Amino acid sequence: MPVIETRPAGDTPVREARRGVLLQLVRPVARTVPWWALAAGGGLGLLAAAVPRLSGGEVTPWAGVTALRAAALCFALGAAFLLDDPARRTTAAVPVRRVLRHALRYALVLPPAAAWWTAAVLLVPEEARPPAGDVTLEAATTLALALAGAAYAVRRRGADRPGQAVSASLLTAAVLAPLLSPSDWSLFTAPGDPHWADGHGHWTLLLCGALLAAAVCCTEPVRRIHPVRRLRTRPEGPKGGSGGAAPRDGKGRGGGESPRP
Amino acid sequence: MTTATTPVPAPAPVKSQPGASRAAVLALARFETRKLLTRVPVLVAFAVYVAWTVWRTRVSFDGFPALQDADRATQDGPLLVGLAVLLSANHAMLRSRRQDTERHLDVLVLPRWGRTVAHLLSVGAAALVTALCVGGQFAWEALKPGAVGNGSPGELLVGPLSVLLLGAFGVLLARLVTAPFAAPLLIVLMLVLATLLGFSGEGWTRWLMPSVGTYSVVTLPSDLIGRPAAWHALYLGGLALTLMAAAVLLSGGARLRTAQAAVAGAVALALVGAVGQSRDVPESVTEARVRASVTPERLHTCVERDATTYCAFPEWEPRTGDWARIVDDVRALAGGDAQDRPLAVRQRVEARYGLDADATLSPLTRPGEVTVGTAWGGNRVPEFAVAVAGVLVTGSEATAGEMCDGRMVTVMWLALADRPDPLADLRRVRLDDSDTGSALVISQTEPLQMTSAQTELLRELLELPREKAAAKVKAGWAELTAPKVTTDHVARVLGLEKPEGENECL
Which residue spans traverse the membrane (chain B) (predicted)? Predict the structure, then answer.
């Protein structure tokens, strides 16, 4: 039993210290959150949600759900900039893991996002309002996709400001998805459609996938393993070593004119 | 150890050559064009646009396009490319700011407005590529063997000009708002407004959108279209130039005489175009529409082939061969004097209510006259065959429309027996796409009626070998085409089983 007793005794100060660091981090992280992008996305999203009400006349359920989808997309485009941090290189060395730093950012944004989404849903006239739970699922999926994209760009490319590229990708996907997604996925149905429930099953799957991807991408790559490169690098030096192997590969690929690393 | 200091020669004063600035702009434009055309959103948009266009154009208009409709079909795809160019041009303009190289660029020979001009030229290159795609799509339609009519350059320019307009907007936006989230958010807002409000616009305001689709259900001769295509192209071009000149002005080119003059000229162009396109359908077109609908025979050119005269609007003259093949097929199966009785195929169109109103034509009352519409291919072919057979059996279109007796079997058999797949064509001409039971048979004019018994008998007849059936029909032609002949009598004459289905017209 001594082993079990020593573990909590040894961990407690670490946990306390971590909690203390997190609390200290709240203010600096809150300062670096790109509130302007979120505010712009949220503002335009509210405008999009209000279009059916402002345009007057009878609002169809299709118009209601389209406006809410556009609102969710606007907010997600703003949230794609959430991980933008010009000082990322300098904060990489702090003793708090990336997953906590990212989680802190997400946590700071979630309450305003929830309030904003409630307002957006309420802006759609009641007779045209789609089932709140289902449409919230769609909005959450869009947001999760944006955040997962940003986390992926940070992890794979070490980008300081992944927002622009991620928002462009998200927008491209959002424009093309209704055109190209198979109709039996029925992702973009109107309320009352017999496939509405099926479609939301697919939305749930997408949400789970996006959350999983975001969670995986938030962890810091501990070390990079490049077995292939290590094998090929010979002690003769990087140029000679790679040059010795390159001609054969180059001939095989037919493009070995410029052996650049 | 002595340090030898070699005097560094003073740098020669840099004199900018007169053409250096232009060459620098062009060099930068080449670079930006390459960057813009290889950005992922632009590549994806072009790939989707081209794939979708190719997929659709393979089977569009059932292989018989009227080019005055085909030109409008080129307008919507480029909007996708335009949005991608807007986004990417905006990002390209913000690149130097994002990577903090603005300071380095400021010391180069190229002024800030020169860099903007280079970006605008890259947008122009994207518009040129779109123009190539649009030209390819239209040329494909025009080269189809069944193509008729004339396209309008104004309608064809809309696609490339929308790309230019949206790209110029992206460049201008980068000069107005430096935030990288502005362009994507604005695109979403534009899409929302276009989806929820844009299509409901009426009157002159709807022509302010880049691409104004008219969901045409009727194909009109090209001089009756009545869309202000040229004015709209002028408006789009003027607006695009205005945005481009404004972007140059905002990039520190405000003192350039050329830029000032360009803004003034472009605004004038856009205004002239906007005023020109806001007018209603011109009176001359309205009158011409009435003439074409009420007295088409004055506009027709007629061709005589065998015993049939084909009168068509001049643009449709190449199509008389397609009509003649159907008429000859139907005639070959007929008996009695129907094989060489004079017939007149008259092309008619209801143009008085414009492009988006579908109005049925009244049947022709004179004997031996058949109506043919402006569309062809697909379902229109068996429909025309039914109309020809109806006139051959009953004498005129009006009497064919009122027919409610056993002659219907002969009419339908004449129309369908020579088709490659008679049963499929039977389903295509029937309103409910069925091949059993009673149904309405669609036609260019009044619909015909088939009872269950007649359908049953027709299917029995179609199942016989064609020569055998043709011999039976020719042998009993006089009885089969006698007015008020009963379906049971028709079955007896043809030597088929008496049908069991009900035999009452609706």
Answer: 36-55, 77-96, 117-140, 156-174, 181-201, 229-251
